[in-house]
Amino acid sequence: MAKIHGGRLLARALKAEGVDTVFTLHGGHIVSILDGLHAEGIRIVDVRHEETAAHAAEAYTRLTGRLGVCAVTAGPGVTNTITGIMNAHMSSTPMLVIAGRHLIRQEQQGGLQEIDHPPLVAPITKWAATAWQTDRLAEYVAVAARHAFSGRGGPVFLDVPLDVQADMVPDDTPLPRGYRPAEPQAADPATVARIVAILASAQRPVVFAGGGIRGDAADALVAVAEALDAPAYVNSGARGAFAHGHPLLGVRARAAAFAGADVVLALGVDWDFRTGYGQAIPAEATVVQVDAEPTRIGWNRPAAVGVVADPGRVLGQLLDEVAAFRHDGDRGWRKEVQEVEAEKLSAAEAAASDDAVPVMPERFGRDVGAFFGTAAIVAVDGGDIVATTAKWLQVSTAGHVLDAGPAGTLGTGPGFALAAKVVHPDSTVGIVFGDGAFGFNGMEYDTFVRHGLAVIGVVGNDGAWSNTKTFHRMFYPDALVATDLGRRPYHAVVTGLGGHGELVTEPGDLVPALERARASGLPALVDVHLAETIRASSNYAT
C-alpha cells in the first residue's frame, strides 16, 4: 500500500479546511510540513521574520473568513510568533500556528531548540497542543480549527515533532468530516422580539459595530441602520461596512452621538480604551449588546439586553422585523448628529488645507485617504499618524482597513498587507506607517520584492515616538528620554531592497509621489517628513 509522510497528511487536512496559502519562514524542524504543503499544491509564502508570518495568518482569516495558517520552526521560531498570536488573541481572530518540535526520541536530552512550546502560548490561545501521533495529524488539525472558530474566535497552536512529521502512514488515511458547526449561533426568537420592541420605541438610536462583525454581515448592518435612520459608527474589523460618504456613517462625532442616545445597538463591540470604556453612553440609555463571546457582554458598560450570539446572524434576524418601521430619513435626531459631524469635518478640512512644511498630519491623512480611495485594502501600522489618517480613509469594503485592534501592536502592517496582496492580487494594497512602526518589520519589503507584490507604503516621518512622547511630556516635561528617532531615510531602505522609494518634504508633492509609486509596479514606500505636533493628551491617558 502506498504511504505518505505526516507532513503531507497535515497538508491534506489543511486543504480540506479550505487553506490555500501558508505563511512561513524556513526551518529545519518543519521540512516535512513544507514538503507536504508543496505536494498538496498549497501556496507557500516565506517571510523574513516569524512575527510577520503570524500577522499574515491573522489577516488572511480576516480577509477570507477561512483559517489563516503560519508554519514556523521550533524554539525561537515559535517565540518570534508570540506578538502575532497575542494580537490575534486580543482581536479574537481565528488562526493556526503550526510549529516544528524536537524529536520525540530526544525528549529531555537537550536537542536543538528543544522547548515545550504549548505552555508558552497557552495564555494567549484558545487551544495549544503537541501532535504525538502521525496517524492522528488530520484529527489534530480538525480539533484546532474547531477551537479557533468557537465563540468569537481566536488563535490556536499545534506543534509537531520532527519524527511525527516524517513517519509514514497509509496514503488513504481518512480525513475528519463535520467537525465544527456549519452556521454561527443565532438568537432565540423571544430575544429577537425583545430587541425589536426596544428599537421600535427608540427616539435617539445609535448603531455601533466593532471587531466582532465579519464582512459577510455588512449588508445587513447597513440595512438595519437605514431602517432605523440611526447614526452608525464602526471600528476595527467593521470599518468599511458602510460605503464612504454614506449619510448615516459617522466618523468624528461618536462621543456626541453616544452622549445623546437613548438606545445603543452594540454589535461585536469591545468597551475598551478605543471606545472610552462605554462611559460616554448615559446611564439611563438602553444598551443592547450582541456578541459571540459571553465574557464581552456587560464588560465595562452594563447591557440592558445581552445576547450571546453571532452579531451577523442577529442582524439577519432583525432585518425583516425592523424594515416594517422604516423611518425614511425623517428622524431629527440623525440630523442633529450629522450637524456635529459636519462641524468636526469642517475643522479637519481647514487643518488639512495647511501648506506648512514639514507636512501637517491632517494634510497627510486627507491626501493619503483620497489616494487610496474606496476600493483599496489598507493596513494601518502606527500610533498618532494612523489615528489621524484613519478618519480620512475612504475604504468601502468591510474588513479592508486592517488595524492591529486592541493590542495596539506596532509592526503589523507588512504582514497584514502581505496577506491582502496574496488574497486580492489585483487590488491596490497599501500600508500607512508611522516612522516608529516601520522600524519593526520594514525588512519585509524584501519579501514583497521576492514575491513580486506591489504593495504601496507611505510613512509619516516626524522623527519621534509621538504618542508616547506626549504621554511622557505630561508627567516629566523636563526629562524627555528615548522619545526621538530622527528622520531616517526609510525610502532608501526600500530602494536598496529593489523596490521604489521616494522622499517627500513638501505637501504638494505627496499625491504625485504616491501616483509614481503606483505607476512603478514595484513594492514602494513614500517617506513623508511630517511636522511634529504637540498635543494635550495621549491614548495612554484615555
Q: Biggest sheet: strands side by side, in what order? A: 3-2-4-5-7-6
Beta strands, count = 19
Percentage of residues in DSSP E strands: 15-25%
Structural class label = alpha/beta
Provide the low-confidence segments as ranges. none
Can you tell me the CATH class of the largest domain? Alpha Beta
CATH fold annotation of the largest domain: Rossmann fold
Question: Which homologous superfamily in CATH is the superfamily of the largest domain?
Answer: Thiamin diphosphate (ThDP)-binding fold, Pyr/PP domains
The CATH architecture of the largest domain can be named as 3-Layer(aba) Sandwich
In which range does the helix fraction lie?
25-40%
Round the mean pLDDT to the nearest integer and report it. 94
Please describe the biggest sheet, giving its number of strands, its sense, and whether it closes into a barrel: 6 strands, parallel
The count of domains is 3
Shape: globular
Cα Rg: 24 Å
Compute the number of helices. 21
End-to-end C-alpha gap? 65 Å
